[in-house]
Specification:
mainly alpha; 8 helices; 2 strands
């Protein structure tokens, strides 16, 4: 069953509004750590839920519109938002919904999650041993990974969602990392930084992924289950 066009438009608008509002509340002080221009972003569970429950396009468009509204309220740089934030959010959350619908084999799901988590740990280790990140970041990352893995152990049905969320975040985080670094080579970031070293892209990738994946793992599976019981989940 697919949602009608009018319902799809309404769901995109709702997703964008919730994403923008929760994101702006983050900026006002509800979970506020920032590295460079990349914010701590618990509101990612909103478009991830829409992408899984309704469709990849609804989640992707809602995220793209929502992040643009939030960016305009926070730093007011449309070029940075349109060149980095908007495509990262659209492609990342579209991928969440698409991977969720394609990932049916549990062994492949578990293998995929393992590969992605190991890759993240290796990137984190490289940054730590290069003395770019300190021990507190490593400890916080370990806690984030623990919160990511726990839902998959407790609830088997969460694994597919966590894998889809992880894969989409990998894509979105990579776009943000490379995009913000590339932007800094030609323009001044809202923080006043410019021409940052290449390793900054890896830092933003790791930061973005590790500060967002726990919220998808913890909040999206139970939310989707509630929507399923209410008959509000659409499969394509």
């Amino acid at each position: 069953m697919k949602p009608r066009k009018s319902l799809s438009v309404s769901l995109v608008a709702l997703c964008a509004a919730l994403y923008a509002v929760l994101g702006y509340l983050t900026y006002l002080g509800l979970f506020a750590p920032v590295i460079g221009t990349v914010r701590f972003w618990p509101s990612v569970f909103v478009p991830a839920t829409f992408a899984v429950a309704f469709s990849p396009l609804i989640g992707g468009l809602g995220a793209a519109i929502g992040i643009f509204i939030s960016d305009m309220a926070v730093h007011g740089n449309p070029l940075l938002s349109l060149s980095v934030g908007v495509p990262a959010n659209f492609l990342g959350f579209y991928a969440v919904g698409a991977v969720y619908r394609l990932a049916r084999d549990e062994r492949r799901v578990l293998a995929g999650i393992a590969v992605e988590l190991v890759a993240t740990v290796l990137a984190l280790s490289a940054l730590y041993y290069a003395r770019i990140l300190d021990e507190s970041f490593v400890v916080a990352s370990a806690v984030a990974l623990a919160f990511t893995v726990t839902p998959m152990v407790v609830a088997r049905q969460s694994r597919r969602i966590v894998f889809a969320g992880s894969t989409g975040l990998m894509l979105g985080s990579a776009i943000i990392g490379v995009g913000v670094w590339a932007y800094s080579q030609f323009f001044v970031l809202p923080t006043g930084q410019a021409q940052l070293p290449a390793w900054a892209a890896l830092v933003w990738f790791v930061w973005t992924y590790l500060t967002e994946i726990p919220f998808i793992a913890l909040f999206v599976p139970p939310t989707v289950r509630v929507l399923e019981k209410a008959g509000l989940v659409f499969e394509e």
